[in-house]
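Supplementary notes for students who missed Thursday's class. We covered one full example, reproduced here. Read the sequence, then the structure, then the short commentary at the end.
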Amino acid sequence: MTNGIKHIFFDLDHTLWDFDKNSRLTFERIFNLHGLPVELNTFIQVYEPINLNYWKLYREERVSKADLRYGRLREAFDTINVKVEDEMINKLSVSYIDYLTTFNHLFEGTREVLNYLFDKYELHIITNGFEEAQERKLQNAEIRQYFNTVTNSEMVGVKKPNPKIFNFALHQAKAEAEESIMIGDSLEADIEGANKVGIEGILFCSHNHYSSANVKKINQLIELKNYL
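Structure (token representation):
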């Protein structure tokens, strides 16, 4: 697989940056900050699938950034029958973004793999996350220095799996599709999106949620050494 490969593109959230862990810690902090008596485990259990669904709608241009930030919280609180006024929802939405990047847990093996790949390939990021937050995540987690380019959906005006974002990233990296690989946790957004422009993909399947998918996949980042 390494024949001719010069560029490796990574997704960020749920691939290198442990979004679920950092998000949970953020909610714990902001609920305490705003004096909101919510049972954290109950909230997280309903919030995580709701959040994933909103991100899918966001990728498909069916909700706006503002709709995502408000709607995922409103729906989660309504689901657990906790009455929270819109004013508090909006405060929580702002606090969540403010505090999310103060927690910067990475998936196991992230630094080891990046150190291993750094001397052999040019590394890049392609992310659908919000531009201001993604740059802070990279800086605060102290991994920004590994990546030559960072392509964000807000820069391009479209989101993965739209081919335009992958072509933009290739152009920015001065890379050809056939000499590139995409690594990410979403079969649809990362792997199938990359495949549409001729980039081969490796699926990071940390929860084994795509066990039946007929693609190259890894369960731990350190397994990338087997391919690269």
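Commentary. The chain has a mean pLDDT of 94. The longest strand covers residues 122-127. If anything here is unclear, bring it to office hours.
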